[in-house]
Design a protein that fits this description.
This protein is an alpha/beta fold. It is about 50% helix and about 15% strand.
């Protein structure tokens, strides 16, 4: 399994050219593609703020995206929330939760986020 950061999930779903060749390869080869429930919230916020535009209504986009073959929804649990609070990774709390989810799943995290790459170059992939 691999875990997608929120921007990676949006770019994968929309076919955006912003995905790196290595990210595309990792996603296409993965047996499971994990999407965190917190990413659903984050996409909703980005759409509400006008920072992301989708080709269909948000609920429809999310439902269709999460119904894709190989996609696994990764729930936010109490343990993951606590793991995220213990990280020395600064910045966005969403990033800490997504990172903690990937780490707990022993999965690579497909992200362009340089802070995560610097924090854990073994786990982060781009």
């Amino acid at each position: 399994m691999i875990v997608l950061d929120t921007h990676t999930w949006v770019w994968w779903e929309t076919g955006a050219a912003a995905l790196s060749p290595r990210a595309k390869r990792a996603i296409s080869r993965a047996d499971k593609v994990g999407v965190c429930t917190i990413s659903v919230y984050e996409v909703g916020q980005l759409v509400a703020r006008g920072r992301v535009r989708l080709t269909r209504p948000l609920r429809e986009w999310v439902a269709e995206s999460l119904a894709r073959d190989r996609v696994e929804i990764l729930q936010l649990t109490v343990g993951l929330a606590l793991d995220a609070t213990q990280l020395a990774l600064g910045g966005d709390p969403f990033d800490r939760i997504i990172y903690a989810t990937a780490r707990r799943a022993a999965a690579k995290l497909v992200t362009r986020d340089e802070r995560i790459h610097a924090f854990d170059p073994e786990l982060a992939l781009w």
